[in-house]
Amino acid sequence: MDQFALVGPHVAAGGLALAAFWATLLSRKGSGTHRWRGRVYLLLLVPLVASVVPIVAREGADPARLAQLAYLALVVATAGWTAWRAVRDRADPARFRGPVFRALAAAMAAAGSALMLRALVAGDALALGFSAIGVVYGGAMLGFLGREAEPGWWLRWHLNGVALLFAATHASFVGLLARTLWPGLSGEPMHALTQIGTIAFAYGFRQWLGVRYDGFPARPRMA
């Protein structure tokens, strides 16, 4: 298969998702425009994740690579679901914390822990950075199940999802930009640095969102 035909759909889906993310972020919060742009962005995540499958298949059916792809798809799905349902269920926290939330919480925590164990054994810094997402986000979800929902809980979970989606949407483009500007530093070290750096930036972005829209910094428990 021609390389462009393989990578082109992923680049196109990523570009559209990136544009939709910023179109949503820059629109007035709570407006009809913000809501419908957000829905378009979430729908664009489907072809974005799906377009990775033929690329990975071309590289070979390495079980570890396939497992990591499944894990990242779980992360994106969980972030999208929490960002969406937190707003939809803002008047009913019990509904938000229903079967889907519980299943995603358990899956995130379990998958993140398993990946972290494998990363520690293999000495894989990139996988270790990815695993922290599942451990922290999944742990926060499990913790939210065991306590009373405080005022503004839905906004915090919406912002949690938005910050995680920021990392998912921008990581590849940050890597591409870094490889273009510093081609001599390309390779696994650069890939790991850009991916983990994007995750770290997303955490800082979440703190800013907490100050900007929630009135105080995001708490360590995330919601």
Summarize the structure in words.
The protein is an all-alpha fold and 223 residues long. It has 2 domains: 1-61; 62-223. Helices cover 82% and strands 0% of the residues. The protein is built from 9 helices and no strands. The chain has helices at residues 3-26, 32-50, 52-59, 63-88, 93-96, 99-122, 125-145, 153-181, 188-214. α4 packs antiparallel against α6. The protein is globular, with a radius of gyration of 18 Å.
What characteristics describe this protein?
223 residues, mainly alpha, 2 domains, 9 helices, 82% helix, globular, disordered C terminus
Shape assignment = globular
N-to-C series of helices and strands: HHHHHHHHH
- Class of secondary structure makeup: mainly alpha
Uncertain segments = 216-223
Number of DSSP helices? 9
Beta-strand residue fraction: under 5%
Rg value: 18 Å
Number of strands: 0
Terminus-to-terminus distance: 46 Å
How much helix, percentage-wise, in residues? over 70%
Number of domains: 2
User: Which sheet architecture does the biggest sheet show?
Assistant: none
Mean pLDDT: 85
Compact description:
Helices cover 82% and strands 0% of the residues.
List the helices and strands and how they pair.
Layout: H1 3-26, H2 32-50, H3 52-59, H4 63-88, H5 93-96, H6 99-122, H7 125-145, H8 153-181, H9 188-214
